[in-house]
Amino acid sequence: MENSKVTIHDIAKALNIDSSTVSRALNNNSRVTQKTKNRVNEKANELGYQRNLLASSLRNNKSNTIGVIVPRISRHFFSSAIAGIEETAYEAGYNVIICQSLEQLSREQKIIQTLSENRVDGVLISISMETKDNHNLLILKKNGTPIVFFDRHLDIPGNSNVLIDDFQGGFDATEHLISQGCKCIAHFSGPQELEIYKNRFEGYKSALEKHNIELNENLIISSKLMESDGIESAKKLLSQPIPIDGIFSANDVAAIGAMQYLKGEGIKIPEDIAIVGFSNEPISSVIEPSLTTIDQPGFEMGKIAANLLLTQIKDKSGSTVAETIVLKPILIKRNSSKRLI
Amino acid sequence: MENSKVTIHDIAKALNIDSSTVSRALNNNSRVTQKTKNRVNEKANELGYQRNLLASSLRNNKSNTIGVIVPRISRHFFSSAIAGIEETAYEAGYNVIICQSLEQLSREQKIIQTLSENRVDGVLISISMETKDNHNLLILKKNGTPIVFFDRHLDIPGNSNVLIDDFQGGFDATEHLISQGCKCIAHFSGPQELEIYKNRFEGYKSALEKHNIELNENLIISSKLMESDGIESAKKLLSQPIPIDGIFSANDVAAIGAMQYLKGEGIKIPEDIAIVGFSNEPISSVIEPSLTTIDQPGFEMGKIAANLLLTQIKDKSGSTVAETIVLKPILIKRNSSKRLI
DNA sequence: AAAATAAATACAATCGATTGTATTTTTAAA
DNA sequence: TTTAAAAATACAATCGATTGTATTTATTTT
């Protein structure tokens, strides 16, 4: 219970050798003979030695830690992405610090400050809904900490991103509704400062255009896409004298809120109104009717993003070319949109 | 882009004073005059100085960081608990490192190792399903790092815990099923090494006993309580020639798996079989029929646990008495068990 | 066996911030 | 004005690990 802080100096003293030799022995340096290494390792075990990573990182100017910032860890997409990130990072010997901005710019700012103070080697971030520019990230930029965006990104030249094709996703979702006979399709969108929501919206518009359906501004409702926003948005739609027969929501959560409300109002889904979401939350396959949605491969995106980041970290010359990898979204057809057989 | 590493020495040099004065100025020490403090702060801003927490923690032998280990962050209960932990910790000026064991003992071990190497000031943990003793935690114990268990705990004398009354929860869930007319109630349990599952099981037994229902060992199915386990368990139950009319599952996830399977088999819930879960996952209120369950106040538990831990951290004398706080579970009655009106 | 080379280890500085002690400067008292 | 006391700042060691350089020891060559 007592040997709280065994250091290499304690090992050195016990073996009557120098601490530099101990350090090299522990790091398996060729300048130390195998015999000495064995003695050191034994003694280290015996004393319960544990490397002090603070000291090590300080000296090496490298923490072997990357920071991950997501809006909220409870979202399935983000926790999958984190799983992918962790797998890749751990394999490469990196630790991961997970942080959630809870969609607040101020929290995001504070997190970045802390990560920077802790000298993380790189940052993976999916920005909050309040984030409109890279102001927050300048701290990191300034001291040369690599950043890779995944999913919710900012369009910064020279920065790597891992995205899915939100335009295509929006297009596919909308065209699917059209293919099911919908003529009057509303869209729940998120903050337009976020590329992903802008692009999903663009996809929606493009699909309408292709099928000669006129865009009706009254059918576009922007919000933060929480469940309550979905309810509110659905309410707003019903209050208008427009015969809506389809909704494409830019995320599942809002879609589910809307579904619950509409069901409560006696509206039949998909017969009266067909609904398509975005993200493929686990809940979406369970709800009744099950929700048609666009799948985002979170785990895969996390792995790719972490790999991009690690490449940049390892390349101390900073000559790595920024890369933007765009994954294909996949439409998952379920019952909430099944109007034709 | 260039001033990657501004240190107090750079500030000192720029102002032609000593770095010790800079350090004290930045820390608002009374030994430095206000005028100097102002000059230092200005220059620090100008140069974009950022404290190196690695150096600071090393010198102070205090990282102002706590580690949190949970089985998986995607579970609603755990992400709520984390939210509570973060709120409390940040208020007290502590950073939080979130880690997930993914129910694997080996991962838990590695995480603890890393947290210890990073010299966290304390650890909050909800153990994995594979964890059967405190072996993993000895590293922390040895160097005197305080540990507080929340929810999934080990019974270690002298250790603080924040729990809910799992026995009561199990009892209430089971008695509720009995009150709805169930006579033959199965139980999905988790690993019996975990106190929580043992206690939920005990509650189940106690409720049966109170109502003079004989315990049938064939109705007790242990698993890791994943969704697939719920399906398997339901299958197993149906394969037996026993007229089951109720299931108390030790978590919602397995309950939902079972529900899906049973519905697929044409069994009516709750008419044929009533089901009660445990945890109150968000999905449980949305599924049809909505799932009766036991609510665990995750956010609150997180706050309490963090407070207990911070108290122990601040008390360097180590004289803080271990405390076990048990919260009351709340039965949330929904449709999956509504057989009588 | 002496000299030359290689191998193993010791010494000392460093990473950046902090803090006890010493020194200088300022202010107050005599 | 001189001296004592207080205030402000400088010096130097420290936290634990790492690493370039110097030194010692072992091995090889002649």
Automatic annotation (TrEMBL), chains A, B:
Pfam families in the cross-refs: LacI, Peripla_BP_1
InterPro entries recorded: HTH_LacI, Lambda_DNA-bd_dom_sf, Peripla_BP/Lac1_sug-bd_dom, Peripla_BP_I
Cited PROSITE patterns: HTH_LACI_2
Annotated TM spans: none
Taxonomic superkingdom: Bacteria
Alphabetical list of SMART domains matching this protein: HTH_LACI (SM00354)
Protein name from the UniProt record: LacI family transcriptional regulator
Residue stretches making up the HTH lacI-type domain: 6-60
Keyword Protein transport annotated: no
Keyword annotations of the record: DNA-binding, Transcription, Transcription regulation
GO molecular function, one term: DNA-binding transcription factor activity
Listed SUPFAM superfamilies: lambda repressor-like DNA-binding domains, Periplasmic binding protein-like I
